[in-house]
């Protein structure tokens, strides 16, 4: 029973293979098209012959010479036709030509007798119109497409990275690439890579191209939140990103994504508490009691901590005076405790005996008044102590005095 089955399969495959060889390669389907709204032309009209003329010339000019781009106008008003053809920047001349040739014949069937149309393919774009769109930079005819798969690993971070990634690629395309086209690659995680592509028509000025791409980048958050890929197709510029490689050749940029910005502090969650009206008085009392206990406790804690920090700082300063200079973090936390010596001198009248409050185990305590009127008490370490004058440790005691 096996043999006939295998024979049947082989025969079937053979037929498929032959069909494949006999049929011309199927032209790629358009990604999208927008048929015009500027009226119809009639069969055999001057407009139609102008249109045919420009479409064939666009395809020939864009694929010849490796430009990948062509635009022009033919005929006289009211039968004048303007046209634009653009191939993706990484597509070679022969692939560009075949995309445009099949596209120009497709679009006449897809948008029959329309005076204008835009049609997007994966590898090329064709636009024509009876309007003079070539002199404008209006990119409002746009198509958004996205990969339906969501990114599961930190989608918010991913979105932020993608924006940075495409923006950086856009900067490269605009200012560093003569054809206003750039591709890029970056590692998001050890297992997820990012691939991006941005393009403007090559005859755009850097300023126009940058503005066009910024317009698209600004749209990204509206459409691509958490998506593994997305593209925005315009007439004058376009962009795309995916987590797989979709362009030919090596990327023009290999980027290292910026470090993830520090996570925002955990939001304060205000859990709504339902308190029945008749218990409100009771609740106030409870709150008052809690405050009565908690406030002094908290104050005491803060004071003890402050004193502990002062002691710790003194001790470690003596043992390891350079510790604070190792990281910015620690320098900052020390700064917030430190009032510099000149300020202390000014506040205490240069440690005037008049301001002396008493003598403690580590040295004398002086009363001082800061510029802002705060009363402080300053403990000056006894001069026999090694770090006495270089590391004063003021304790703000105005709450106690
Ligand atoms: C143009 O032709 C299409 C069909 O070919 C028709 O549906 C449409 O109404 C026409 N538009 C105008 C403005 O004549
Ligand atoms: C357009 O011209 C072709 C041949 O050139 C002809 O067969 C066709 O009937 C013409 N159509 C109209 C609407 O005149
Ligand atoms: C195509 O190139 C030819 C020869 O350089 C030129 O005359 C024609 O205007 C071009 N057409 C377009 C649409 O660019
Ligand atoms: C052009 O690119 C296509 C694939 O996109 C490839 O099959 C073809 O060999 C390339 N042609 C040349 C001349 O490099
Ligand atoms: C992706 O997430 C959206 C909502 O954020 C959800 O509607 C959609 O079904 C998800 N797609 C997949 C393939 O999981
Ligand atoms: C893109 O980068 C430019 C600087 O190169 C910056 O001004 C702009 O805000 C960035 N745009 C986004 C959406 O991040
Ligand atoms: C442009 O290229 C130069 C070197 O060719 C490089 O130093 C510079 O960073 C590039 N600029 C951008 C925006 O990529
Ligand atoms: C991504 O990581 C791989 C290996 O981990 C490395 O070979 C590759 O160069 C990296 N790509 C970029 C764009 O940094």
TrEMBL record:
InterPro entries per the UniProt record, alphabetical: GNK2, GNK2_sf, Kinase-like_dom_sf, Prot_kinase_dom, Protein_kinase_ATP_BS
Record has Repeat as a keyword: yes
Database matches in SUPFAM superfamilies: Protein kinase-like (PK-like)
Domain of life: Eukaryota
Pfam families in alphabetical order: Stress-antifung
Ranges of residues in domain Protein kinase: 351-401
Transmembrane segments: 290-312
Gene3D superfamilies xref list: Gnk2 domain, C-X8-C-X2-C motif, Phosphorylase Kinase, domain 1
Key words of the record: ATP-binding, Membrane, Nucleotide-binding, Repeat, Signal, Transmembrane, Transmembrane helix
Record keyword Signal present: yes
Binding site for ATP: 379
Signal peptide location: 1-28
GO molecular function terms noted in the UniProt entry: ATP binding; protein kinase activity
Regions annotated as coiled coil: none
Gnk2-homologous domain location: 29-133, 139-246
Protein name stated in the entry: Cysteine-rich receptor-like protein kinase 6
Classification of source organism: Eukaryota, Viridiplantae, Streptophyta, Embryophyta, Tracheophyta
Designated gene of the protein: LOC109703942
């Amino acid at each position: 029973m096996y043999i006939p089955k295998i024979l049947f399969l082989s025969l079937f495959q053979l037929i498929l293979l032959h069909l494949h060889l006999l049929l011309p390669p199927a032209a790629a389907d358009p990604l999208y098209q927008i048929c015009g709204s500027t009226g119809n032309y009639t069969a055999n009209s001057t407009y139609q012959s102008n249109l045919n003329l420009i479409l064939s010339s666009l395809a020939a000019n864009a694929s010849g010479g490796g430009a990948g781009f062509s635009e022009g106008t033919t005929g006289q008003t009211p039968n004048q036709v303007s046209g634009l053809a653009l191939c993706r920047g990484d597509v070679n001349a022969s692939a560009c030509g075949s995309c445009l040739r099949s596209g120009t014949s497709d679009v006449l069937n897809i948008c029959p007798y329309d005076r204008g149309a835009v049609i997007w393919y994966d590898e090329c774009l064709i636009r024509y119109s009876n309007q003079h769109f070539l002199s404008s930079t209006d990119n409002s005819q746009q198509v958004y497409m996205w990969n339906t798969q969501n990114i599961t690993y930190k989608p918010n971070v991913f979105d932020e990275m993608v924006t940075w990634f495409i923006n950086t690629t856009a900067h490269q395309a605009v200012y560093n690439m003569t054809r206003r086209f750039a591709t890029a690659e970056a590692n998001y995680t050890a297992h997820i890579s990012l691939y991006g592509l941005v393009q403007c028509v090559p005859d755009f000025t850097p300023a126009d191209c940058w503005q066009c791409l910024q317009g698209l980048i600004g749209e990204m958050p509206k459409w691509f939140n958490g998506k593994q890929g997305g593209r925005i197709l315009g007439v004058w510029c376009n962009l795309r990103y995916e987590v797989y490689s979709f362009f030919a050749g090596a990327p023009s940029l290999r980027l290292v994504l910026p470090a993830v910005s520090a996570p925002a502090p955990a939001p304060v969650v205000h859990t709504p508490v339902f308190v029945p009206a008749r218990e409100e008085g009771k609740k106030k009392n409870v709150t008052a009691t809690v405050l009565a206990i908690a406030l002094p406790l908290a104050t005491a804690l803060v004071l003890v901590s402050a004193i502990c920090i002062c002691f710790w700082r003194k001790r470690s300063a003596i043992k390891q005076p350079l510790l604070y200079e190792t990281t910015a973090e620690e320098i900052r936390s020390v700064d917030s405790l430190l009032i510099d010596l000149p300020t202390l001198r000014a506040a205490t009248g240069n440690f005037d005996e008049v301001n002396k409050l008493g003598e403690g185990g580590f040295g004398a305590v002086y009363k001082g008044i800061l510029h802002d009127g705060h009363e402080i008490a300053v403990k000056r370490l006894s001069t026999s102590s090694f770090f006495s004058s270089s590391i004063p440790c003021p304790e703000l005691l105005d709450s106690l005095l």
